[in-house]
Amino acid sequence: MMIPVRCFTCGMLIGDKFAPFQARVKAGEDPAKVLDDLGIKRYCCRRMLISSVDVIDQVLPFHSHKAEMS
User: Fold this and answer.
1) Cα dist. 69→58, 59, 65 in Å?
2) For 51, left (φ over 0), alpha (ψ -120 to 50), or beta?
3) pLDDT band for position 10 (cuts 50, 70, 90)
4) Distance (Å, rounded) from C-alpha 1 to C-alpha 61?
5) Closest by alpha carbon to 50, among 22, 24, 11, 23?
6) Which of 1, 20, 49, 62 is 20 to 30 A from 33 in CA distance terms?
């Protein structure tokens, strides 16, 4: 996963909070409560974590195809 290190809007450091956020949400905790516990109060920072999508599995087949063509 390539989560941005800082929020695009305000510049707050959020990259170090993604792994704990993801682990706690997968464990069944409420995402809003987890974000509050991690100290992420601004909605711009909250959207950075909530809206992140892991697309590496979708991109890798195209990368290997490009490597074969070279």
Assistant:
1) 19, 16, 6
2) alpha
3) very high
4) 16
5) 22
6) 1
